[in-house]
Amino acid sequence: MDDRSPQGDRPPSVPLTAIELRQRWLALQDEIVDSGGDLDRVRVVAVTKTFPAAVAELALEVGLIDLGENYGQELESKSVEVAEWVSRHPRIEPPRWHFIGGLQRNKVKRIADCVALWQTVDRADLADEIARRAPQAAILVQVNTTDEVQKSGCGPAETARLVDHARRQGLDVQGLMTIGPTDGSDPRPAFARLRKLADELGLVDCSMGMSGDVAAAVSEGSTMVRVGTRLFGNRSPRGTIS
Ligand SMILES: *Cc1c(COP(=O)(O)O)cnc(C)c1O
Predict the structure, then answer these.
(1) Using a 6 Å cutoff on CB, does residue 208 contact ligand 1?
(2) Which of 38, 47, 87, 88 gives 20 to 30 Å between its CA and that of 180?
């Protein structure tokens, strides 16, 4: 059965079909609603990291607009490829790229033109560099809400100061972002902690919840879930995608 896009230029290397992707997105929307979320307030960021540009294009075809990437170089090349594809498909809205990975200062410049929301700002020097390369950019401050030592994110106690600092650099701080516990424990306390912190700082957005913990995140007040596997299937290890 050929249920691929009407454009008909989908390379055969993409096993996922638009119908499947749409079904998975609908199931995700159901879960968001069942967890007390309002679909107008909870944005789905479709995480396309490690997948080829064709997968991002499929996401755009079914109406997913917010796309998340973790690696600077990958975003750089994929965004160019996708933009070229969008220019040939006038019906399709261009994506909003979210940068959700660990970010080094020296990588900011190369992706500054394509990032719509920088979700992982966790230190002052990074905020400074983003402000320099992408003045007035929209950002989220990443917070380590689980006190795991190896995890990125500023400490909850430092968050207010970093938010202030970023604002003084002219950045548009739209909210906070966190990653739930990586040890499989109940993610709710971490998510509740982020929501409370955002509320105290008068920030609207809380980017929290991934494939495995969407329901918990939404019930704790997430406004943005970052979902890869549940939409696109399992990722191959980094580096094997051409
Ligand atoms: C990879 C990644 C995601 C998506 O993870 P899934 O479990 O595939 O949904 C979300 N957020 C961040 C920061 C990630 O690195």
Answers:
(1) no
(2) 38
